[in-house]
Amino acid sequence: MAHKATPEQRNERLRSFVLATREMIENEDFDNIHIRRIADKAGFHNSTLYSYFKDSEYLISLASVKVFEEYSHSLAELSKRNLSEYENFMEIWKFFCLNAFKFPKIYNNFFFGKHSDDLTSIFEEYYSIFPDEEQKHSASIHKMYVGKNLNLRCYDILEPLVGLPNIRLNKDNLTLANNLIIASFKSLLEEALTFKSSNTIEKVNELTSRFMATLCFVIEK
């Protein structure tokens, strides 16, 4: 029984389940990934898997964190630089888009799927299983990175821009601006999903450039 497992056994089982799911999400549609199939691939009965995870959708989101490795590394490098709030905001979104449009299926599920409002616990659980993969970020970037949903993640780095020169943001329009930014990102992410088989570096860069132009239009005077 799962509750009798030692801490070492428990962590090894968690790793097995996440690694099995990770392999499946690289090669299959998410709709075809179910608890029983994941358990079979990891070498366990499905009842054991249910002892650890809410459902297959949660496990898919958990396994997806591996895809953020490059993005997280970019944020770690950004944390070492002494940039302004505006520069940080723009760089964070640029890194995010470059990775998102490369892996649109995973980003769409992670940030707009069933467990997209539970991201903090997903990140915390993933890095407890794979601690060597966790990057060191500044306090403000870390707060954004592990934010519970995309809305709060964006808001946390948008709010410090209020009152800056040449920025149109104020307390009255901040939420609207945040919503417009997320809607624009979602629209381009859906476009990336449509053309996912041909998302070359050029296409990823084009989508990123279009989003960054929209970002400037929304926040700048």
Textual characterization of the structure:
There is one protein chain. The protein is mainly α. It has twelve helices and no strands. The chain has helices at 7-27, 35-42, 46-50, 56-64, 69-79, 85-100, 104-112, 119-129, 139-145, 150-158, 174-194, 201-219. Helix 10 (150-158) crosses helix 11 (174-194). The protein is globular and about 60 Å long.
Described by the principal axes of the CA atoms, the overall outline is: globular
Secondary structural class: mainly alpha
Number of strands: 0
Strand content: under 5%
Instruction: Give the fraction of residues assigned to helices.
Output: 55-70%
Can you count the helices? 12
SSE run? HHHHHHHHHHHH
Radius of gyration: 19 Å
Low-confidence stretches: none
Question: Main beta sheet: strand number and arrangement?
Answer: none
Key features of this structure:
globular; 221 residues; single chain; mainly alpha
Quick summary:
The protein has helices spanning 7-27, 35-42, 46-50, 56-64, 69-79, 85-100, 104-112, 119-129, 139-145, 150-158, 174-194, 201-219. It is an all-alpha fold.
